[in-house]
Write a structure and sequence with these properties.
Layout: H1 9-17, H2 23-41, E1 44-47, H3 49-64, E2 76-80, H4 107-115, E3 118-123, H5 157-164, E4 170-174, H6 181-187, E5 190-193, E6 214-218, H7 221-231, E7 261-265, H8 275-290, E8 294-298, H9 303-321, H10 323-328, H11 335-345, H12 349-357, H13 359-370, E9 376-380, H14 401-406, H15 412-417, E10 421-428, E11 434-440, H16 446-458
Parallel strand pairs: 2-3, 2-4, 7-8, 7-9
Antiparallel strand pairs: 1-3, 4-6, 5-6, 5-10, 9-11, 10-11
Helix pairs in contact: 2-3, 5-6, 7-16, 9-11, 9-12
Length: 469
Amino acid sequence: MTDLATLSVTEAADAFAKGEATAEALVRASLARIDAHDGKVNAVIRLDREAALEAAAAQDKARAGGVRLGALAGVPMMHKDMYYRAGKVSSCGSKIRKGFRPTVTATVLRKLDAAGAIDMGTLNMAEFAQNPTGHNAHFGDCRNPWNLAYCTGGSSSGSGAGVAARFFAAALGSDTGGSIRLPAGICGVTGIKGTQTRVSRAGVMPLSFSMDNVGPLTRTARDAARIMTVIAGQDPLDATSAPEAVPDYEAALTGDLRGISLAVPREWFFDGADEVVVKGFESALEVLKARGAKVDYVSCPSLRAIGTYVSVVSRVEGATIHANWMREHPGDYAIHLSGRLFGGYAIPGHYYVEALSRRGPLLRQFCKEAFAGHQIVATPTLRMRVPTLAETDIDADTANWARHMAVSANTRPFNYLGIPTVSVPCGFDDRGLPIGMQLSARPFAEGRALQAADAYQRDTDWHARVPVL
């Protein structure tokens, strides 16, 4: 028999809709896997066991009564512990907010509830979503299910590790410098950061108000498409959310890449890259070519400025958001985070204004460089092989700083540009750790990036492989 915990979002939803599996059975399968293995992985912060079972029982009763339920009915999900649900503790991975109970529920959670997803609780994360490796001094480090000595990527560490370990079908993460795509790439799952403003951020802990993104980590591109169709769209509670109509992303997944051209930038993304990563990425390009895509290597000199400006924006905005807590509770932050935040206060205001004012022109320049005659930009998610927790622990050894920050080198540019980007697994390195590929599209062309990701997954099985726990 198939272990129900191994079903993807669309498989679980379809099994429930057809009466092949009850919502209660799906939830119990997830709970059993969490009970058996999370002691090693440390992905879960709060498990709402009884509430999830009650919600599942209610859905089973409704289905038996002929009630038509949503596109995610019966699907077990958990979310990064920064999505507010009224009355439930939301720690944001921190000591400062260990007992914080919001009075509002995040718009994206309300949309998932309406679609029938079953919320089972919250997940480990980097403190206040502010590191690319997933280390957490307050709740303990989340561990990579492929090898527990290795990092998960951050800041959505529990989301990536939990989906990879088959604890649940999908999870929400957030992405300001790569925090969805990094754990997706490092844990061997699929993750999407939509266009900046595509998904409401109302009721979500902020990190950088001009670069934060909400999105899912899933097993497959089809799963991500179904969830994005549910959560995207304008929200009156988020004045920055875009008014563009939301298409049916899943309907765009034709598998046909004929007429699609991919650009691979020569600059930035391969600087100091490990050979095994480059080989895995190049093999993935061959699969896309076989599906009908054309691949060109292009020059994108704008990436040097983009790589500098993105750090200025995130550091200044992060320091601004934390100003009061940094004055009142500086000792409650992990060492690396307080150092990062204090550094933000040292950046002159005119540098920040310059970084903001250059975003539009640099986006236009990058689009001319990369998207002229191309629909997709393809890059490795990480330049390096997945590092260990010890190799990226900067609280234990500041000599790890360069390696720690290098983890997000390939993801950060797309946050500054604000364009939609999907990470999919595209192989394993010589130590048995995943390799990821990013597929980016023009603003509001999430469907195009998902189309390419889905086409790739039709001819590969990296996303279907399960770590042995």
